[in-house]
Amino acid sequence: MMTLKHVLVALALASFVGCSDVKTEQNNIATQSQLTAPGTDSNKLSPAGTVVAFLNWYKENEDRLHEIDLVSGGLKDTTTFYSVNFKETERYLAELKKSGFLSDKYLHNLRQHFKSADDHLKRHPQNDSYAPGFEYDLIMKAQDYWELWDNLDRLQLSEQVMTDTTAYVRLAYTDYYKAKYYLSNHNNRWLIDDMVNDAYQP
């Protein structure tokens, strides 16, 4: 017998994806190996598997990406003010695209972030501390997240909602770090459109 609670949950899911064809997965003990096995064809990955595969890619390439100077001036040369180095941001975006896990929408939004940060720096010149918009890791959207790399094989899949074209995934890596991911389907391959740090949500 369907209770009022069941009806409300069903309506909430339907309104989220905008269609009646909804597939939902919940597994609080899912591990990385259950989500995606090494060498899995990326075209066959589930939305959650795509996220995990990207995180493993980012873990391996993080140091190299951090060597790209997205910002010029400022703290390294206090006679100048911070400004966004757009030549280097484009190189950074190109490297991210090579991962094969991010959509053009994700990259466009990150490009817009760089433009907004540069506009802010022009209005509010600064040459000390962190440049606004770059005080956290742009991919993980956090400052202290390195413990996550030790917990990728123990992550928890708390929710996955799918339609034929879109997906929503919520993952927990440690007691304090949770994240939401939004994906879209491109030629039967899931790509990440957005990520939201969900650390302070229950």
Largest sheet: 5 strands, antiparallel
Inertia-based shape: globular
Query: What letter string, H or E per element, gives the SSE order?
Result: HEHHEEHHEEEE
Whole-number mean pLDDT: 80
**Rg calculated over all Cα atoms:** 19 Å
Total DSSP helices:
5
Helix vs. strand class:
alpha+beta
Question: What are its keywords?
Answer:
5 helices; 5-stranded antiparallel beta sheet; two-stranded antiparallel sheet; disordered N terminus; 202 residues; alpha+beta; single chain
Write a compact overview of the structure shown.
With 202 residues, the protein is α+β, with helices and mostly antiparallel strands. 35% of the residues lie in helices and 20% in strands.
Describe the structure.
- With 202 residues, this protein is of the alpha+beta class.
- Helices cover 35% and strands 20% of the residues.
- The chain is built from five helices and seven strands; from the N terminus they run αβααββααββββ.
- The N terminus is likely disordered.
Record the SSE blueprint:
Blueprint: H1 4-17, E1 23-27, H2 32-35, H3 47-66, E2 71-72, E3 83-84, H4 86-97, H5 104-123, E4 156-162, E5 166-172, E6 178-186, E7 189-197
